[in-house]
Design brief:
By secondary structure, this protein is of the alpha/beta class. The protein is built from 22 helices and 18 strands. The longest helix is centred in the middle third of the chain and has 39 residues.
Length: 662
């Protein structure tokens, strides 16, 4: 059965099921003579005026279930009472980028553009065209857009190099603009580059953000959260305006064109942020809340903020050795910024925005924004046996993709594969108000995916190329690398092995290491002892470990991210005192622990590390001992042409290009 027929069958089943269920809330029209009653008018809330206060004290998440229900009802009424004429609530016009891209008839969604996603072998007059556009310094962007052989498609016109202030609500843009003007020039330029691309609704991939530059990270989050809030805010305003249009139609007796009020998806959540740890989520939500300052006519109320800070920070009284030693330089800056705070990787939370309030910990199906870890979302999808929650996501942000590669990349792929699927239940959906392209199964071809990382890997490039299918196009930020600096005097040797098939690369590397590299190490008078072997991939590590353990004459110990504390201590001690000749570690072990390993004179990289900072960092460890000269240290790196991305971060783009082509 064709995909279109499968989607149609699913929708018919949903319609039949929803027709038999009682409706909780009618969206077609409200009775004009019924005045909404404000419940619990005098309830107290944490406001943005208290953002600097301690999170201790009364937890505003507490209370009887009845009070919580009244609070929910009152928040909904505040949303329904929304006044679109208020200048503080000015919204994007229908002709804006959001209106054009996510309208009921998007201009990028045509029979001709759909040819670009046709099954392989299908004749298509449309193809993807890629060109490179220079930015400042050594940076540039690679832009991919649809090109019609007949010259009839012009999607690239949605992007502009100007700062798109007119596309944002005045309520949110003015405070952001003031903050942007106060930023140092590099961070202001980052926001100026991101904003036009964000509102173009093209997919974005930025792969060279600094993991240690928190001000750069904050500038990025400030711009992206402005985009997310504006997107959700605009969608809700459009729904409210159409509600009013339907009300007037009921009062006047003049029917409203059904297609003019098709403004919804299957479920409410439309924006999603995926981050690896709770500490990252806390930073994103803090940035999100910064866009809701107190206004002269109204006060933005933050519900459950104290609870959010409590649950996404370390438990009270828990010592954070990374934060405490941050100023002492005990650990590298990037390690501190990644791991200080709460690093739980199984979480999810919903945020709902109304006229005067931001509700944290909203029920997920009633939220505008969901922030979660890939593992947290995978857990709930598998537990509930459906992905209805993600059926209407229109903008997804994936931050710290480099950290996710150190966790489990499969979790991210799993979540993305469950975006924009047809739901199994109706969830009180008003199908008369649903945008037609949701019903046709084309939401995934309009969804904007925004991917951030501090470096690029083949997995990320393949994900952005193959798993992201936005018809509006793609833009990838790139930079030319200068390479890393290493201590003087160290002899480096880069050993290339030939491989012309990516699927055979793993086997070819193992074969070359076991037949050529390691036998020479054992025969060498210098490199047969005090040698550290770094294996980036855990699967390669297991393979190398099993091979070495077959030969009892090899004096070696192993440490991976799976090793216990006692196992790590024993292995380090044996290597340091010279009881064993070889120490084999994984890149993930060093990523999570960042121990300073002693007793090293020779370093072998089974493959170039993805984290370029690890290369000079590990080469500095021999100098922890006294009276060590650079000439006494050796370093060998095994590589193939498929290691080009990691290699260029170490030796520089120019040298890496020559080394790969040689």
């Amino acid at each position: 059965m064709a995909d279109h027929n499968i989607t149609t069958a699913k929708l018919l089943a949903l319609l039949n099921a929803s027709a038999t269920l009682p409706r909780k809330r009618k969206r077609l029209a409200r009775e004009p003579e019924v005045q909404p009653v404000k419940l619990n008018k005098k309830r107290s809330h944490v406001t943005l005026a208290h953002l600097g206060e301690s999170a201790t004290g009364t937890n505003d998440a507490d209370g009887a279930s009845q009070a919580v229900e009244e609070q929910n009802n009152a928040a909904d009424e505040e949303e329904l009472d929304f006044d679109p004429e208020n200048h503080l609530n000015a919204h994007i016009t229908v002709g804006s980028s959001a209106g054009a891209h996510f309208s009921n008839a998007p201009r990028v969604l045509t029979p001709r553009t759909l040819e670009a996603i046709s099954p392989p072998g299908t004749h298509s007059r449309v193809r993807w065209k890629t060109h490179r556009k220079p930015l400042t310094g050594t940076r540039s962007v690679v832009v991919s857009t649809l090109e019609d052989k007949d010259g009839e498609i012009d999607i690239a016109a949605t992007a502009s190099s100007a700062i798109p202030s007119s596309h944002f609500s005045h309520r949110f843009w003015k405070p952001f603009e003031l903050r942007m003007k106060e930023l140092p020039e590099p961070y202001r330029r980052l926001q100026e580059e991101l904003l036009p691309e964000l509102i173009s609704y093209r997919d974005i991939y930025h792969n060279h953000l600094s993991a240690s530059d928190m001000q750069q990270q904050e500038a990025m989050r400030d711009a992206v959260t402005l985009h997310l809030i504006n997107h959700a805010w605009t969608a809700r305003q459009n729904i409210i305006q159409n509600n009013q249009k339907l009300d007037k139609g009921v009062v006047s007796g003049q029917p409203v064109d059904p297609e003019s009020v098709q403004d919804q998806g299957f479920t409410r959540p439309s924006t999603l942020i995926l981050v690896p740890f709770r500490n990252s989520a806390l930073r994103w939500i803090t940035s999100y809340l910064n866009h809701f300052p107190n206004q002269s006519k109204t006060e933005t109320q933050i519900h459950n903020r104290a609870r959010f800070i409590s649950e996404f920070s370390l438990p009270e009284g828990t010592a954070d050795k990374l934060a405490e030693g941050e100023d002492l330089g005990i650990y590298p800056t990037d390690h501190v910024q990644t791991f200080k705070g709460n690093i739980d990787d199984n979480f999810r939370a919903g945020i709902k925005v109304t006229k005067r309030a931001v509700r944290l910990f909203e029920h997920l199906f009633g939220s505008d924004l969901i922030i979660a870890s890939p593992l947290g979302l995978r857990f709930i999808i598998e537990k509930n046996q459906n992905d209805d929650l993600l059926s209407s996501i229109e903008v997804v942000v994936i931050d710290q993709a480099d950290v996710m590669t150190m966790q489990n990349w499969v979790h991210l792929q799993f979540v993305v594969s469950h975006l924009n699927n047809t739901p199994k239940e109706s969830h009180d959906t008003d199908f008369s108000r649903m945008k037609s392209w949701y019903l046709d199964g084309h939401a995934k071809h309009l969804r904007q995916t925004i991917l951030f990382s501090s470096y690029e890997t083949p997995h990320m490039r393949a994900f952005f190329t193959n798993d992201v299918r936005n018809l509006a196009g793609k833009i990838r930020f790139e930079t030319r690398h200068e390479g890393v600096r290493i201590p003087e005097g160290i002899k480096q040797e880069f050993i290339r092995f030939d491989c012309n098939n990516a699927r055979e690369e793993v086997d070819k590397r193992f074969e070359y290491f076991t037949r050529e590299v390691f036998p020479k190490l054992r025969k060498s008078a210098v490199q047969s002892a005090n040698t550290l072997i770094v294996v980036p991939s855990y699967f390669d590590f297991i393979r190398v470990r099993n091979w070495m353990m077959q030969d009892e004459s090899i004096s070696v110990v192993f440490i991976s991210e799976e090793s216990t504390g006692s196992e790590i201590t024993k292995a380090r001690q044996k290597f340091f005192v010279g009881k064993v000749s070889f120490l084999v570690i994984t890149e993930r072990f060093h990523f999570y622990r960042r121990y300073k390993l002693k007793g090293i004179l020779n370093i072998i990289f089974y493959a170039p590390p993805d984290h370029s900072v690890f290369y000079p960092e590990l080469l500095s460890f021999p100098f922890l001992a006294r009276d060590i000269d650079g000439a006494d240290i050796t370093c060998k790196t095994l590589y193939s042409k498929y290691d080009a991305m990691a290699l260029e971060r170490i030796v520089g783009t120019r040298d890496a290009t020559a080394m790969v082509k040689t």
